[in-house]
Design a protein that fits this description.
4 domains; Udp-n-acetylmuramoylalanyl-d-glutamate--2,6- Diaminopimelate Ligase, Chain: A, domain 1; CBS-domain; about 35% helix; about 425 residues; Arc Repressor Mutant, subunit A; 5-stranded mixed beta sheet; alpha+beta; 6-stranded antiparallel beta sheet
Length: about 425
């Protein structure tokens, strides 16, 4: 039987997109406490089922697919530009495909304005009307209002018409920046993107006997299973080490490892990879906020995701992406790299920033290990020496050297040169993830 938490989530999923949701309403409809309703609504927000906005409330939204993550809803636009809704509140959950700046004649403006777009325009009432009739939302800049009949039209079309005190150029820059940030976030992989759901994975109950472990092992060939209580809350892990040599009639709760490490949907791939390497574990249970089992994530899932990320083109560039794209292998030397200091890599003084220098050392070390050991690294410790400042447009030579390497451990010394002079050094210690 589904828990109250699961029943609330199912109820939220059954609501139509655009429906308003409140803690009191959910508590009354499903006869649960307001605390239970609040926690379930927060979980629904984490899963992308609802969105909570200032001055708007919590509404049911269409769950975004990862590949469309760079698109914004009109409700998100309101938050970005610190605006207010004048009409068409029912359409705030909709997604904009593009935005158009209305700094042209009406006919030219309408040529570019289409359904699901956002027209950014000043105090031009006729443009507001034409855009709504074309199926586009409207954002009025400069803090202006609009006519009442335009607000009624927005309500009728269920298309938001909004107002902000910022000017048109600033608004366009803010929305563009938000989309760019979303593109960077799109590349971040979370446990929720790679885990195996509990209905497709194997688990045991704490009141089962060890005999059940052998049955499941025969069926699945796995050796590690999450242990749950009668409410599906994770209470332990059971591995072959716990079972071997024990009486098959013993209860699992007597021999399982209690209080296991767990992750949630929003745990990043980098974090779970580090956890698995550091703790030496192969499988981690995925839970919700109430510790109810949602599935598992395995080392194979993590490695597969890491390999896919390396094959993806990066759309929104982070500092690490800029460093990675600038770092090239020197001809005939697979373990020596060169890079040019671009404006994005410098600080306010026009010299190579400390953060970028550290990223250069880490990236060069990672490539060296890929070449020598065919594995990825998780940095455990990094000591950096900044010897001389490096000017913009300088050409760098980065020479990582493997000092020591074991099965799960490596120590690397890195020297960085500019004009054949040593400008910095780094000593990196890392744990290895074999491919």
């Amino acid at each position: 039987m589904a828990t109250k938490h699961e029943q609330i989530l199912q109820h939220i999923i059954s609501l139509g997109v655009g429906n308003k949701i409140s803690v009191r309403q959910i508590a009354k409809a499903l006869n649960v406490s307001e605390g239970t309703a609040y926690r379930a609504i927060k979980e629904a927000e984490n899963q992308g089922l609802v969105s909570t906005m200032e001055r708007v409330g919590t509404i049911r939204i269409e769950r975004k697919k990862k590949e469309n993550f760079e698109r914004l809803t009109f409700a998100e636009v309101i938050n970005i530009v610190d605006g207010q809704v004048l009409g068409g509140r029912e359409g705030l959950h909709k997604t904009l495909n593009k935005f158009v700046i209305g700094a042209m004649q009406l006919d030219d403006m309408m040529r570019y304005t289409e359904a699901d777009s956002l027209l950014i325009v000043g105090n031009r009432v006729k443009a507001h009307e034409l855009a709504l009739n074309e199926g586009a939302a409207v954002l009025i800049t400069g803090g202006f209002d609009t006519d009442d009949h335009i607000k009624r039209l927005a309500d009728e079309k269920q298309l938001p018409i909004m107002s902000t005190s910022y000017d048109t150029f600033t608004v366009a820059a803010m929305i563009n920046r938000a989309i760019y940030d979303q593109l960077i976030k799109k590349e971040i992989v979370f446990v929720g993107d790679i885990y195996t759901p509990y209905d497709q994975s194997f688990y045991l109950y704490n009141k089962d006997t060890l005999k059940r472990w052998y049955e499941l092992n025969e069926q699945s060939k796995h050796t590690r299973y999450p242990i749950v209580d009668d409410k599906k809350r994770v209470s332990g892990m059971l591995t072959s080490k716990d079972v071997i040599g024990k009486d098959p009639n013993l209860l699992i709760e007597k021999v399982m490892t209690k209080n296991p490490l767990v992750v949630q949907f929003k745990t990043s791939l980098a974090y779970v990879a580090h956890m698995m390497v550091w703790e030496g574990i192969e499988v981690v249970p995925v839970v919700d906020q109430s510790y109810i089992l949602q599935g598992v994530v395995s080392r194979q899932d993590v490695l597969k995701a890491l390999q896919q990320i390396q094959r993806q083109p990066q759309i929104g560039e982070t500092i690490e992406d800029i460093v990675s794209s600038n770092l090239e292998t020197v001809e005939d030397e697979q373990t020596v790299f060169r890079a040019k200091v671009t404006p994005q890599m410098t600080n306010q003084l026009g010299t190579l920033s400390n953060g970028v220098f550290t990223a250069l050392i880490t990236e060069a070390s990672s490539r060296l290990l890929l070449y020598v050991k065919k594995g990825d690294l998780v940095v455990e410790n990094l000591t950096v020496y900044f010897i001389k400042p490096v000017q913009i447009d300088s050409n760098l030579i980065v020479k990582p050297k493997l000092l020591e390497a074991g099965r799960i451990y490596a120590k690397i010394d890195v020297e960085v040169f500019s004009n054949q002079k040593l400008v910095g050094k780094g000593l990196l210690m890392a744990q290895l993830i074999d491919r």
